[in-house]
Amino acid sequence: xxxxxxxxxxxxxxxxxxxxxxxxxxxLELVVDAPAAGEPVAVLARRLGRSRTTVAQxxxxxxxxxxxxxxxxxxxxxxxxxxxxxxxxTRL
Length: 92
Description:
mainly alpha
């Protein structure tokens, strides 16, 4: 992968940290298996094997970055995150 040519986004955790891994896992879950109406934090926490607090913290950081939105039904990927996934499909 190429070196980043831009400043690191303020709300994205530093690589190699647990928070970075949590943000990656949550974003992957939301863009690959994108729930149209949103997914509750509790459901995502269970699926990811993380605590609700961990998922909520990751979601808050990703929301500040414009990648995750919250709604009455829970968390979902933003149109920008889904568009990026469409252009650069995530490989599992």
